[in-house]
Every structure is written in structure tokens, then in C-alpha cells.
Amino acid sequence: MKTLIITGGAGFIGSHVVRLFVNKYPEYRIINLDKLTYAGNLANLKDIEDKPNYKFVKMDICDFDAFYKLMQDEKVTGIIHLAAESHVDRSIKDPFTFAQTNVMGTLSLLQAAKLYWESLPEKYEGKRFYHISTDEVYGALEMTHPEGIPAPFTTKASTASHTVGGGTSAAHPAYGEKFFTEDLKYQPHSPYSASKASSDHFVRAFHDTYGLPTIVTNCSNNYGPYQFPEKLIPLFINNIRHRKPLPVYGKGENVRDWLYVEDHARAIDVIFHNGKIAETYNIGGFNEWKNIDIIKVVIQTVDRLLGRVKLETSETGETIETYPDMDLITYVTDRAGHDLRYAIDSRKLQRELGWEPSLQFEEGIERTVRWYLDNEAWMDNVTSGDYQKYYENMYANR
Ligand code: NAD
Ligand code: TYD
């Protein structure tokens, strides 16, 4: 029987991974291990918390002794490691916490897994340590084509409706000729990406030195339900809802490659089961957007769903739709060390394991905005901090 620990399962991506594994594999035992920091919220898993194959354990990944004991007690066969400090802006303010959790926490899990699995008669057979990382470790790509050029690859989910230079492109745009491939040198710029890069190196070192059966994946920006509203898309949806300013860093020209979170969870499932030990796979959305373009799509979608769109008559007598909340866009001082462009080449995963995004971006963003508007209570709860007070009380004496 497989007993898996998913770390960071109460966070944004982790909760989607836990949900997928608990529902899809009733024969596995799934242990969600999470410290419940400000970013961890058990309300993300209400729909599966009573399933017999699910268990929650509140633990810090830096607590080596507790984790080693848990592995022994539960006879753990696999680890999917998502727990991390994950927000670049926070890492700029407080780099120590990022080094502690992302580097030392990962090292603590690796060492415990190594010692426990090596103590078993079958040792590493049937075992797997899967580390989830970010494309940000590769640093920033140049934007050689700010006007956009057709991307050299497409998927079933690719759309061409994304506007480039005022017109509509024939194929999904790219804003440069280079992409992140798995063999690229690591060049992290933020304390967050530096800490993730360091943890990736430790994971590979544990394979190369001790033979630990590891896999690493580096994924692009995720979006979707249950994302903590300090990240661009949920923050802006919430601000638009309350008609609060939308702080656009710099000129809003930075490019990110966006992937719907459930597609990431599906990739993790495929790679956990079929990926090759010691390999790295890049996971991307084949979906580059300038921040300012994505922000406009988010405003249009929120305004449409909230019935705020206004109809006006143009000088030529045509009826045109206007979006009043475009006025909320506020350009602010740029983020320090702000990476210009991220763009993943995910063709290795597409070719070798048959994964590609399933959801078109237009559909994904519509679903996402709708979810946040339909789940105001979730949003109000996490932004008010009530849920953290609840955890403080609930776990005060444990
Ligand atoms: P998140 O911040 O939403 O969730 C992180 C989770 O980890 C939370 O539940 C938190 O309570 C938990 N955690 C933090 N410190 C812990 C500790 N010391 N011990 C135990 N649990 C702890 O993050 P996310 O966006 O879901 O990201 C998950 C993983 O995916 C991270 O490793 C991140 O680097 C990676 N990633 C994220 C993105 C993205 O766009 N969000 C993209 C690529 C990779
Ligand atoms: P973010 O969601 O923080 O993800 P990451 O920094 O890991 O890519 O930010 C996405 C992009 O949006 C990034 O280029 C920074 C920008 N951004 C803003 O312009 N304003 C904001 O308030 C935030 C949170 C982000």
C-alpha cells in the first residue's frame, strides 16, 4: 500500500494536489503535513477532510525528529514536497524565514527520508521523493520582442485570441526567442528564488550522493481558486470587488507564463507516477502574458460578472462597452530585482509523459474570477485574519 505525505497541503497548490490524490486514489493513504502558516488554510480542503484515506498532521518541516518519527509510524513510501514560503515580496522583507523553511526544511525532509528508507530491508525500492519547485530559479529572460511573436509551440489548450501589439496574433504570443529549458543554468535573483534554487540543489545532491529516488519539477506561475490574496490575480480580484487601487509594479510590462492550478496538480500526478528518477521536468502553461494585459482581462471579467460594464456610444454611433474599474490601475514603484520575463519550454514533459495544459486561459480566468466572487466568505475570512486566530486557539495547547 502507498502511504504518501504531501507537505504544504493546506496551501494553494498543495490543496489541489491533496484533493486530486485523495479522490483519485482511494487505495492510497494521504497525509497532509502542514504548519498552517498565514498561507495554510484547512478551509481549502473542507470537501475531502472526512474521507477515510485522508489525514491532517500539523507539523513544521524543519522539525526533523517529529518528521522522522512520522515516517516510521506511518510507514511512508512517498513524499510530495510543496511546503514553502512562496511570496517574492515577503522574501524581500524577510529572507531568513525563506532560507529556514525552504532550505533547512527541505534538507530536514531529505535526511529523514534517507535515514528511514535506508533502514528498511527493501531500502529505496518503490520509494519516491518529489520536490516541487519554481521556474524562478532560472532567473529572468530577455524581452527581445515586446510587440509579441508567435510562440514556437502550441497545445490543445492554446488560444490565439490574446492581443498582440493592438491586433490579434495568428498564434499564441511569445515576448522573446529564449525559453526556460531543463538544462539552463540556475540564476535566481530574489531571496525566494535563491532559497528554492538552493533546495533544488540539495534534492539533487541527495540523489547523487546517497541514491535517494528524487524528482524535481519547476513550474511557472499558477492561478486558480484558493490562492492567498497577496499574489497578483486574487489580490486584484478582491481589490476590484472593493473598488480599491490596483498596484501595478513598474510599467506592468513584466511577463509571466500562467498555468491553471488544476493542470499543475494533474502534472504532479503524472510525474509522481511515471516520471524518471533523478530527472527534472519543467511545467508551464505555454501561455505568456504581460502583467498589464492580464490585469485588463481580470478587470473586464470582474466588471462583467458583477454587472458593472457600461454601454456608451462612440463618435461614429457605435455602442461600445466600457469597464469603469480600469480607473483603479495605479502604477507604483517597481519591485526590487523584478524579473522581466518568465517563459517555460514544457515540451520535454509533453513529449515524454504526454502532459499538456487542458484548460484554455480564457476559460481558466473566467472560472477563477467566478470562484472568488462566489466564495466571498473564504476571501473575507483570509483577509480579515480570523482564520489564523482560529488556528491559534485550536492548536494552542498541542
Ligand atoms: P502557498 O504559500 O499557498 O502554500 C504554502 C504552504 O506551505 C502553506 O499551507 C503553509 O502553511 C505551508 N508551510 C509553510 N512553511 C511551512 C513549514 N515550515 N512547515 C510546514 N508547512 C509549511 O504556496 P503555493 O503557491 O501553494 O506553492 C506551493 C509550492 O509550489 C511551493 O514550494 C512553491 O515554491 C511552488 N510553486 C508555486 C508556484 C505558484 O505560482 N504559486 C509556481 C511554481 C512553484
Ligand atoms: P506574483 O503573483 O507575486 O508572482 P511572482 O512574483 O512569483 O511572479 O506577481 C506576478 C507579477 O505581478 C509579478 O511580475 C509582480 C506583479 N505584481 C504587481 O504588479 N502588483 C502586485 O500587487 C503584485 C502582488 C504583483
Low-confidence stretches: none
Structural class: alpha/beta
**Helix and strand succession?**
EHEEHEHHEEEEEHEEHEEHEEHEEEHHHH
Level-1 CATH class name: Alpha Beta
Q: What's the alpha carbon Rg, rounded to whole Å?
A: 21 Å
3D shape: globular
Strand count, sense and barrel status of the largest sheet are: 7 strands, parallel
The CATH topology label is Rossmann fold
Instruction: Give the tally of β-strands.
Output: 18
CATH homologous superfamily caption: NAD(P)-binding Rossmann-like Domain
Q: Helix fraction? A: 25-40%
Beta-strand percent range: 15-25%
Give the count of structural domains. 1
**Residue-averaged pLDDT:** 94
Heterogens: nicotinamide-adenine-dinucleotide, thymidine-5'-diphosphate
Instruction: Give me the CATH architecture, please.
Output: 3-Layer(aba) Sandwich
Summed up, the helix count is 12
Q: What is the CA–CA distance across the termini?
A: 30 Å
Order of neighbouring strands in the sheet with most strands: 3-2-1-4-5-10-14
